[in-house]
Amino acid sequence: MPLVVFVAEVNRQVAGFIEVGLRSHADGCDRRQPVGFVEGWYVEPEHQRRGVGRALIGAAEDWARSQGCTEIASDTWIDNEPSQRAHEALSFEVVDRRVHYRKALR
Ligand SMILES: CC(C)(COP(=O)(O)OP(=O)(O)OC[C@H]1O[C@@H](n2cnc3c(N)ncnc32)[C@H](O)[C@@H]1OP(=O)(O)O)[C@@H](O)C(=O)NCCC(=O)NCCS
Question: For residues 61 and 67, what is the distance between their CA atoms, to the nearest angstrom?
């Protein structure tokens, strides 16, 4: 499956990046076709809240469209409130929440 990284520059300095690839399916998406998936998304703290993250998501969406996708998906940690707010501001919908378990084997 293809995967690309887009880098955002401000004054010729790297300010952030987004890693977007194709997944065969993603929770909440149409399982009959591959979906774009945001594997990583980061903006340096001094450049946050200035539209850099929005521009990176826009680039990821354009790339996913160019791959024939009609949907793009992402995920984040349950305690990462800023990321959740940013996803929602960019029109991502919550489709699932999970509990992860572990058990030591003796
Ligand atoms: C999530 C992240 C990439 C957003 O980047 P950013 O450059 O700050 O985002 P933007 O400035 O383009 O904001 C995009 C939208 O999200 C909203 N937003 C961003 N951060 C927010 C916050 N902390 N609280 C509320 N809304 C927020 C903005 O208001 C904006 O919406 P608007 O245009 O309607 O006002 C950045 O906060 C980050 O790198 N966080 C640390 C790493 C991380 O959590 N990555 C995501 C893991 S999946």
Answer: 10
